[in-house]
Amino acid sequence: MFDTISGRLGEVFARLRSKGSLNEADVDSSLSEAKLVLLEADVNLAVVKSLLARVRHRAVGTEVSSSLTPGQQVIKIIHEELITTLGRQAAPLARGSKSPDVILISGLQGSGKTTSAAKIAAHLSSRGRHPMLVAADLQRPAAVDQLQQLGDRIGVPVYSDKKHGPERLARMSVKEARRSGRDVVVNLPCAGRSSAWRAV
Ligand SMILES: Nc1nc2c(ncn2[C@@H]2O[C@H](COP(=O)(O)OP(=O)(O)OP(=O)(O)O)[C@@H](O)[C@H]2O)c(=O)[nH]1
Ligand SMILES: [Mg+2]
Fold first, then answer.
1. 109 Cβ closer than 6 Å to some ligand 1 atom
2. Which of 133, 126, 124 is nearest to 157 (CA)?
3. In this predicted model, what pLDDT tens digit does every residue of 134-156 receive, in sequence order?
4. CATH of the domain at 186
């Protein structure tokens, strides 16, 4: 997601970079394009509004640096405000005292649990961890297949067994992770009230 956002924002602001002088209309037209890019990437509307309001306030304000053109100045402001919005410090995932770490994902129906589980697993793989996805949503038909397809796409093993309920599956998945050398288990039970909560 960040690659897409940065590529598209880069295109929007590349047009400003070359300008020797900027008027409010230049800034406003770039910011409204930036707003679309951010909203299409699912950034929260309140976050987008506040970020762009701060950028606009500073960009049409008084900050002038002799070493930068106005276009470059706006890009510098956006860069700084993006850092402020995202946070200056990365917060790594906390590691448990014993392996594997277990991440349990719950949330309302259709809120993006399965997709997020695959994204987390892909991210962890890219950081050198060895995740395993657990398909413990045994109620919705095709839920296991959906996760299996995502797992295949990102090269992460998916553990499931339709013979057992979510709680048993959660326990078994931890054993299987230890046996197969996976150091993070991303478990997706069916619902917040699932008994798999108790098993981890
Ligand atoms: N735009 C957008 N769509 C998303 C995002 N995450 C998931 N989706 C889509 O939302 C729909 C539901 O996502 P899932 O990951 O299946 O949601 P879920 O919570 O696992 O759904 P259930 O298992 O049915 O409760 C799918 O069509 C996804 O492609 C996201 O970050 N942005
Ligand atoms: Mg799901």
1. yes
2. 133
3. 998 877 778 899 999 999 999 99
4. 3.40.50.300
Neighbours of 195 (CB within 10 A): 14
Our answer on whether the CB atom of 110 is closer than 6 Å to any ligand 1 atom is: yes
Instruction: Find the 114 Cα to ligand 2 centroid distance in Å.
Output: 4
Asked whether 70 and 19 are in contact (CB, 8 A), the reply is: yes
Question: Are 79 and 161 part of one and the same domain?
Answer: no
Q: Are residues 110 and 189 in the same domain?
A: yes
Domain, as residue range, for 117: 101-199
**What pTM did the predictor assign?**
0.71
Q: 146 C-alpha vs ligand 1 centroid, how far in Å?
A: 11
Question: In the prediction, which pLDDT does 111 show?
Answer: 84
Same-domain check for residues 186 and 112: yes
Question: Is the CB of residue 78 less than 8 Å from the CB of residue 10?
Answer: no
Count of structural domains, the chain: 2
Cα(100) to centroid(ligand 1), Å? 26
Which residue minimizes the CA distance to atom 2 of ligand 1?
42
Q: Which atom from ligand 1 is nearest to the alpha carbon of 188?
A: 20
